[in-house]
Amino acid sequence: MPTRRVKLDRIDRRILDDLQENGRMTNVDLARRAGISAPPCLRRVRALEEAGFIRGYHADIAPELLGYELTVFALIGLSSQAKADLQKFEQLVESWPEVRECHMLAGEADFLLKVVAENWDAYKTFVDERLTAAPNVNHVKTMQVLQTTKHRPGVPIDVDAVDEE
Amino acid sequence: MPTRRVKLDRIDRRILDDLQENGRMTNVDLARRAGISAPPCLRRVRALEEAGFIRGYHADIAPELLGYELTVFALIGLSSQAKADLQKFEQLVESWPEVRECHMLAGEADFLLKVVAENWDAYKTFVDERLTAAPNVNHVKTMQVLQTTKHRPGVPIDVDAVDEE
DNA sequence: TTAGAAACCGCAATTATATTGCGCAACTTT
DNA sequence: AAAGTTGCGCAATATAATTGCGGTTTCTAA
């Protein structure tokens, strides 16, 4: 059984940072920028994927061009917070394609949903026929996104951080 | 000046859907799945990128493994909503690496921020020394994410939708 | 400290992809 | 129907991704 590096060194951080910024960068470029040759670079990427540091790669698609003019964050309150009821709700959410993200929250509300819709009408239909119609949903507070002024992928990665351990 | 296809056909939608799901899929696979040969598939991808349908590609990094144990959504209210003041705030936000997303909202609050931090302590420092210290910030309502139960990239793409136009 | 193991690196060879240059067919536009 | 346009696929070429190995540095533990 091969030992698995737990601590990331400067090179790993550089790779993660580059891939977070440009997920389709070639391994050759990745290697050049990281200062090592292609083979070990590829091996590192594979290792980072297998160790779970990299959960996947995704193209960032423009919602408006695909017909989604409206983005909304909705705070959801449930009537019951029993484990089974929460899971029931999560399951339901999973089946709704217009809901892109679902975060369980502490205090205030129970869930924060990010929803995309063609327009306000489609959103209203979603709320009326899906959300409100769902059992256990107590209240829905809608917050319309007027403009997203910053959206960086994932996490900040300090490439120059001092290696620990 | 080359004409640019505006309407997406089934093949384009398939490509977008596949790349949204797996941003590092090879062009060969993309082509195979779309039912066309590699060259035209690559040309379509380039066209989709240039037309802005694809804004970029990003690796999805696991926050916890990078030391970010805490994710928070914060609702921010400003004292002044004058255009200049809003922009001032957005600029500030841009410079804070722990803020990954900033959405301007209608009603309720002025902005919704998604923030990642090593721990609660680091977040508190962020709020005290950056957010609250910033001019024009009136109030901050923090919502801690306990668990993200769904996070799909971007938008729903119905590959089988009927072509319009 | 020192032999052996472990973790990594880079070179060189091989396989797979990405890219380009064209000619062809379908579809429009006069 | 001639001419222009758009998009496809084949074939050739240029790049990239992978694999197999030998060599080096770093640990480990006797």
Keyword list:
DNA-binding; DNA-binding (chains A, B); 5 helices; four-stranded antiparallel sheet; transcription regulation (chains A, B); Arc Repressor Mutant, subunit A; 165 residues; homodimer; Alpha-Beta Plaits; Tscrpt_reg_AsnC-like (chains A, B); ArsR family transcriptional regulator (chains A, B); alpha+beta; transcription (chains A, B)
Could you give the topology of this structure?
The structure is a homodimer of 165-residue chains.
Chain A: H1 10-21, H2 27-34, H3 38-50, E1 54-61, E2 70-78, H4 83-94, E3 99-105, E4 111-117, H5 120-131, E5 137-151
Antiparallel strand pairs in A: 2-4, 2-5, 3-4
Helix pairs in contact in A: 1-2, 2-3
Chain A binds a DNA duplex (30 and 30 nucleotides) through residues 2-3, 5, 26-28, 36-40, 42-44.
Q: Care to describe what's here?
A:
Chains A, B: Pfam families: AsnC_trans_reg, HTH_24. Chains A, B: Residues 8-69 form the HTH asnC-type domain. Chains A, B: InterPro entries: ArsR-like_HTH (IPR011991), AsnC-type_HTH_dom (IPR000485), Dimeric_a/b-barrel (IPR011008), Tscrpt_reg_AsnC-like (IPR019888), Tscrpt_reg_AsnC/Lrp_C (IPR019887), WH-like_DNA-bd_sf (IPR036388), WH_DNA-bd_sf (IPR036390). In chain A, 35% of the residues lie in helices and 28% in strands. By secondary structure, chain A is an alpha+beta fold. Chain A has a four-stranded antiparallel sheet with strand order 3-4-2-5. In chain A, a hairpin with a 5-residue loop joins strand 3 and strand 4. In chain A, 30% of the residues are buried. The mean pLDDT of chain A is 94. Strand 5 (137-151) of chain A pairs antiparallel with strand 3 of chain B, so a sheet runs across the interface.
